[in-house]
Design goal:
By secondary structure, this protein is mainly α. It contains six helices and no strands. Helix 2 (25-53) packs parallel to helix 4 and helix 3 (55-74) packs antiparallel against helix 4 (79-106). The protein is elongated, with a radius of gyration of 16 Å.
Length: 171
């Protein structure tokens, strides 16, 4: 999800300007920066929740933030709501960083943990690529940016419903 959100914002800003007119550099910067601003509180709370209530609950929480943020983004009537949506998605990203990698490492044999957790970085890169592909597909659609953000809800919902519980810790 992190990679998709990084990749999709580039195309979404172009498509957004087709609907709302040209955005100045400061506004574009705030829209992009709202996501990493949400990461800090997400990482701080996500680590606590993941440790206290389990990795899977951290993964579920991240999905909830992604879905809520995606809905806010897809339905945003103005820049302020777009900023709020990006911030909420950023909180989900922060939670994901503190829950996904531990969940992945606990879901595999100890001798495979290094390669499995490095797979996370590969998936971030593939997510960026998917965001660019989504833009290419939607670039000529009316309000295509809304569909780009809405797809993140579908991805998060899939992740929410199909993520298995990791086995008991072996450490």
């Amino acid at each position: 999800m992190l990679g998709y959100d990084i990749g999709v914002i580039t195309g979404a800003l172009e498509s957004l300007e087709d609907d709302w007119g040209t955005l100045d550099g400061v506004t574009r910067g705030f829209i992009v920066a709202a996501l990493p601003l949400g990461q800090a509180p997400g990482a701080l709370t996500g680590g606590y929740i993941s440790d206290r209530y389990g990795r899977l609950r951290g993964v579920f929480l991240q999905c909830v933030f992604y879905i809520i943020g995606g809905i806010i983004l897809a339905s945003a009537p103005n820049v302020e709501m777009l900023l709020l949506g990006r911030f909420v998605v950023g909180v989900g990203v922060g939670v994901s960083v503190s829950s996904n990698v531990p969940w992945m490492s606990e879901s595999c044999p100890t001798n495979r943990r290094g390669s499995v957790t490095s797979f996370y970085e590969l998936m971030v890169t593939i997510g960026v690529l998917l965001g660019y592909i989504e833009f290419y597909i939607m670039k000529d659609s009316e309000s295509g940016w809304r569909y780009m953000f809405l797809l993140s809800c579908v991805l998060a919902g899939t992740f929410f419903f199909f993520t298995p519980q990791p086995p008991p810790p072996t450490i």
